[in-house]
């Protein structure tokens, strides 16, 4: 018997009107802006009214290094929140919005799975409330104003060869990585080499996710550096007088989106920077709202703990004063066997040998959470029917050797009921003492900060910087950006910058090819290996399976 797909489960569910979800959170209706019956934006000014209310406990969900076998981080996050409510706790979820790129590329959807989903899943996975379109429009307005400034006489003396700002589109489209535009004669602009990023890699996305209100948003947008003059001075969006118009496009996108899980747990789904090329966390505003409105705010950070969790702690927590009370590291037996060398077609067969070889990946992530970041940690084994008792016992044994509890998560099949054991473990951990720390100090040089991440979190031997990156580090330091945190752009599949090095590799050197400043977001981006800020579609895109019938019912999202 075939199990129903994620979209079939979601479409068969009954949702509460979003006004009821907001009312249950005691949100005054003047802060609720409904987008139809089941979605709403919540005015961030509500945070001022809640400023004296104590925060709940922040629970961060992260994972092992991802594999094609899947880990189920969002599913676990949603199921944990539902599980917390099952044991009598007031829980609120804070998640990122899915990008259309992966939805039509590989994932086919990113709103959880099985009986642990946020709904309406079709809306969330597609246009939702239009936030990403607004971000793309603001990004491209800045690009248009930049090129228009050059065309209209270039009063700022911008060097067309040193423009760093790209246009963007929320789609995996490798054809747009490198383009030449402005062709066709003088009236069509100034010809130059250009390129596109995917919208979730745009600095505007990072700015929106880190801005506290409209004034902070405008200030951050104004600081965005778009290129350099002929005498190597930075040119900002503020210099181009673009920040006000960009903020006008983003004024509604700045407000977090409220939806619900299949079990009516409130969920803020807002913002969506990728964790392999950006900082990988939902908006700061959504996180703060979840903390004010619940006893427990359950949030996730993208990809493995070496990327999303590291950036959550080293960037987001540093900028906001947030501190997780506990961390959940999600793993599956199948994914660990993949890290240990099991072929893809044998991941469902018991193999304690490859599981043993793959476990160091999980254990390194756990050790980093405990020893580098000083936080209490629980391992959530996302259960599959093919997991054997011997395999589960081996994972538990290795984790307990590090004094880390292990909970079996059955939320995909059972929803909140299958998350109760994990919820109870999280509640116990959240009361324990911690010694929270970041992985580097801000007063280190740019190179030293990157080296600290590589040696302490990735466990590499060291870092090599290309001649270009060395020059950029010197220039960025001279410009006053040396004290910013670092956002590593690195493959998600390995602790190293080589996607083929699975498990917990040692002895490798990380290669930094380029450094750039995201002055509006407030961090330095280090591009490593062959990481791309515009992905491509796979040989068989998920889009080929997505369809809609004459009634408007969507199929193929999974």
Portion in helices? 25-40%
Oligomer: single chain
Beta-strand content bin: 15-25%
Biggest sheet: strands, sense, closure? Answer: 12 strands, mixed
Number of H/I helices = 19
* Measured distance between first and last alpha carbons: 18 Å
Report low-confidence residues grouped into runs of 5 or more. none
Shape descriptor reads globular
Mean pLDDT: 94
Backbone CA Rg: 23 Å
- Secondary-structure content class: alpha/beta
Q: Say how many strands there are.
A: 25
Q: Which terms summarize this structure?
A:
single chain; 558 residues; alpha/beta; twelve-stranded mixed beta sheet
What does this molecule look like?
The two termini are 18 Å apart. A hairpin with a 4-residue loop joins β22 and β23. The strands form six sheets. Strands 1, 2, 3, 4, 5, 6, 14, 15, 16, 17, 18 and 19 form a twelve-stranded mixed β-sheet that branches. Strands 20-22-23-21 form a four-stranded mixed β-sheet. It is an alpha/beta fold and 558 residues long. Helices cover 35% and strands 19% of the residues.
């Amino acid at each position: 018997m075939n199990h129903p797909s994620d979209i079939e489960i979601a479409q068969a569910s009954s949702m509460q009107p979003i006004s009821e979800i907001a009312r249950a959170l005691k949100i005054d209706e003047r802060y609720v802006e409904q987008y139809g019956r089941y979605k709403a934006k919540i005015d961030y000014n509500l945070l001022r009214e809640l400023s004296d209310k104590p925060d709940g406990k922040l629970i961060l969900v992260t994972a092992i290094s991802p594999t094609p076998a899947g880990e189920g981080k969002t599913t676990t996050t949603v199921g944990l929140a539902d599980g917390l409510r099952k044991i009598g706790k007031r829980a609120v979820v804070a998640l990122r919005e899915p990008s259309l790129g992966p939805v039509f590329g590989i994932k086919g959807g990113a709103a959880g799975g099985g009986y642990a989903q946020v709904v309406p899943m079709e809306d969330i996975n597609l246009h939702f409330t239009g936030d990403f379109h607004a971000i793309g429009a603001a990004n491209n307005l800045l690009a248009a104003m930049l090129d228009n400034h050059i065309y209209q006489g270039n009063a700022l003396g911008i060097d067309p060869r040193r423009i760093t700002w790209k246009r963007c589109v929320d789609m995996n489209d490798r054809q747009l990585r490198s383009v030449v535009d402005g062709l066709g004669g003088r009236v069509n602009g100034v010809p130059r080499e250009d390129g596109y990023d995917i919208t979730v890699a745009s600095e505007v996305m990072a700015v929106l996710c880190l801005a506290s209100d409209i004034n902070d948003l405008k200030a951050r947008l104004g600081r965005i550096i778009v290129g350099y003059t002929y005498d190597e001075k930075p040119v900002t969006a503020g210099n181009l007088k673009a920040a006000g118009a960009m903020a006008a496009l983003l004024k509604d996108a700045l407000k977090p989106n409220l939806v619900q899980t299949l079990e009516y747990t409130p969920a803020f789904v807002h913002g969506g920077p990728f964790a392999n090329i950006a900082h990988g966390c939902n908006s700061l505003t959504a996180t703060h709202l979840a903390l004010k409105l619940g006893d427990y705010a359950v949030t996730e950070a993208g990809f493995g703990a070496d990327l999303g969790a590291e950036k959550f702690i080293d960037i987001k927590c540093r900028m906001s004063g947030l501190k997780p009370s506990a961390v959940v590291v999600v793993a599956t037996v199948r994914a660990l066997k993949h890290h240990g060398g099991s072929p893809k077609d044998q991941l469902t067969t018991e193999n304690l040998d490859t599981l043993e070889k793959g476990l160091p990946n999980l254990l390194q992530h756990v050790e980093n959470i405990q020893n580098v970041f000083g936080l209490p940690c629980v391992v959530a084994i996302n259960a599959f029917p093919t997991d054997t008792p011997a395999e589960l016992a081996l994972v538990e044994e290795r984790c307990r050797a590090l004094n880390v509890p292990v909970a079996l998560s059955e939320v995909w099949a059972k929803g909140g009921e299958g998350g109760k054991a994990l919820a109870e473990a999280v509640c116990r951990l959240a009361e324990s003492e911690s010694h929270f720390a970041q992985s580097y100090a801000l007063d280190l040089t740019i190179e030293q900060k990157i080296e600290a991440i590589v040696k302490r979190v990735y466990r590499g031997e060291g870092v090599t910087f290309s001649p270009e990156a060395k020059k950029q580090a010197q220039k960025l330091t001279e410009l006053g950006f040396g004290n910013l945190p670092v956002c590593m752009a690195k493959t998600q599949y390995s602790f190293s910058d080589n996607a083929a090095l699975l498990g917990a590799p040692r002895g490798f050197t990380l290669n930094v090819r380029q450094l750039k400043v995201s002055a509006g977001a407030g961090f330095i981006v280090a591009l490593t290996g062959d990481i791309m800020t515009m992905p491509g579609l796979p040989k068989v895109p998920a889009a080929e399976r997505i369809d809609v019938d004459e009634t408007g019912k969507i199929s193929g999202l999974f």
